[in-house]
Write a structure and sequence with these properties.
- It holds the Pfam family FtsA.
- By secondary structure, the chain is an alpha/beta fold.
- It has helices at about 65-90, 135-160, 205-220, 230-235, 280-290, 295-305, 310-335, 360-365, 370, 405-410, 415; strands spanning about 20-25, 25-35, 40-50, 55-60, 60, 105-110, 115-125, 170-180, 185, 195-205, 225-230, 250-255, 260-265, 265-275, 345-350, 380-385, 390-395.
- The longest helix has 28 residues, at about 310-335.
- It has a domain at about 240-385: Nucleotidyltransferase, domain 5 (2-Layer Sandwich), CATH 3.30.420.
- It has a six-stranded mixed sheet with strand order 11-6-1-2-3-17, sandwiched between helices. It has a five-stranded mixed sheet with strand order 14-13-12-15-16, sandwiched between helices.
- α1 (about 65-90) packs across α3 (about 205-220), α5 runs antiparallel to α7 and α7 packs across α8.
- A hairpin with a 2-residue loop joins β4 (about 55-60) and β5 (about 60).
Length: about 425
């Protein structure tokens, strides 16, 4: 009987909590967090990761709503119990235990090859350069961008992903970089100036995909604060990523898809996603080693952790070689489609559960990038860890894996929403 997490007793503390929900092909990840609005930080108080049913998702798209709702319910319940254990750690037996409040509001992530993000540049000359920029002025800019550029952009996206224009839905549009009289500023509010350039990042997804997420939230009694494109939130959450000195390619290797975001001088150029993730490698191991899918997935994890006997390790490595080059070509194609750059960033950041495979990093380091795309020098590849995200305090002291970057980045988006 849903929702499982509501079976908790309501003896709660006074702190308000929120939920970040990452619905992936392989796992549901739930982070319970609170917000300190005085210093603009979030504290993760509980975290969980629950495996999805193998037939629940296909390429980051929900195909069995009931199974996904059930997995989300369990993930939230486990995150709440984890938060209780963290909150009561070190408390004496004579002290009354505290119980974490049940979250009623959530930020949800969305991914998949049908989710598209575009960047539109808006330049204008202010009539009164001495007046301070306010929210009304910024909202007028976004409204103007939508009026002038959205029709063509939506048609291009619909044609690109093969759906009718009417089936697409705008998720959100945000100013992610601002230049005033040629100087980049983090937040234009309160600044004066004459020539202003806004980089507006807009995201679109099929209505069916968006409505499925809303249905999940409604079934669990949750109010949706925002649905965010996952590579975008990761790009915004990395420490220093909004600085003019920051340029990078962020690659999130999930179970069903790989998500790519390109950041140039602190502004997001665009995002691309393609349906090739860790499950492809699991199925290759399943086929070549004649295993059940769940056995192949566990063998893939053990292989990534260096726990397999030598003979099995060699067999898995041989199996992965058959697909890894195709995956790297998918990264190349995604970058090629983001053609608003004269030169590509020379820093790659890897995260997501699929990034644990050593072949992922190896193929990125061996791919002929200088021959196929305009890189200034050969790109460096690094893993992205939760500790590299900004404004986040992990009260659990347990969220340390690159696979867990996305839910924390989703949680951090509440700071931009307010």
């Amino acid at each position: 009987m849903l929702p499982f997490f509501r079976s908790k007793k309501q003896n709660t503390t006074q702190d308000d909590v929120f939920l970040a929900l990452d619905i992936g092909t392989e796992f549901i990840k739930a982070a319970i967090f609170s917000v300190d609005f005085s210093d603009l930080t979030i504290t993760v108080r509980g975290y969980s990761k629950v495996r999805q049913h193998s037939s629940a998702m296909q390429g980051a798209m929900i195909v069995n709503l009931e199974q996904v709702i059930s997995a989300c319910d369990r993930a939230i319940g486990e995150a709440l119990h984890h938060a209780d254990r963290v909150a009561n750690k070190g408390r004496g037996q004579d002290e009354e235990p505290v119980s974490t409040p049940i979250p009623t509001r959530t930020i949800m992530g969305i991914a998949g090859e049908l989710v598209q993000g575009i960047t539109i540049m808006a330049d204008y000359t202010r009539e009164d350069p001495d007046s301070k920029i306010d929210e009304e002025e910024m909202n007028e800019v976004i409204a103007h961008v939508k009026e002038q550029a959205f029709a063509d952009a939506v048609e291009d996206i619909a044609e690109d992903i093969g759906v009718p224009v009417a089936a697409l839905q705008e998720l959100n549009s945000k100013i992610n970089a601002t230049y005033i009289d040629g100087v980049k500023v983090d937040n234009p509010l309160g600044f004066t100036g004459t020539e202003v350039t806004y980089r507006v990042f807009s995201t679109f997804a099929p209505s069916l995909h968006v409505n499925s997420l809303k249905e999940i939230a409604a079934s669990l009694g949750l109010e949706v604060l925002s649905i965010e494109v996952q590579p975008y939130v990761i790009s915004r959450a990395i420490k220093g990523s909004r600085s003019k000195d920051f340029s990078a390619v962020i690659i999130d290797v999930g179970g069903g898809t790989t998500d790519v975001a390109v950041v140039d001088q602190g502004g997001i150029i665009g995002t691309k996603m393609f349906a090739f993730g860790g499950r492809v490698f699991s199925r290759r191991i399943q086929k070549d080693l004649d295993l059940e899918l769940h056995e192949a997935e566990q063998m893939k994890i053990d292989y990534s952790d260096g726990k397999l006997p030598k003979e099995q390790e060699l067999r898995v490595r041989d199996a992965l070689k058959k697909d890894i080059t195709i995956w790297a070509e998918g990264i190349e194609l995604s970058l090629e489609e983001l053609d608003d750059l004269e030169r590509y960033p020379t820093q790659f950041y890897l995260c997501g559960g699929g990034s644990a495979l050593p072949e992922i990093r190896e193929v990125l380091m061996e791919h002929p990038w200088l021959q196929v795309l305009p890189f200034r020098k050969y790109p460096k590849t690094s893993m992205l860890f939760p500790g590299q995200l900004e404004d986040i305090i992990d009260a659990t002291d347990s969220i340390i894996d690159p696979a867990d970057v996305t839910p924390l980045a989703l949680a951090r988006m509440i700071l931009e929403l307010v």
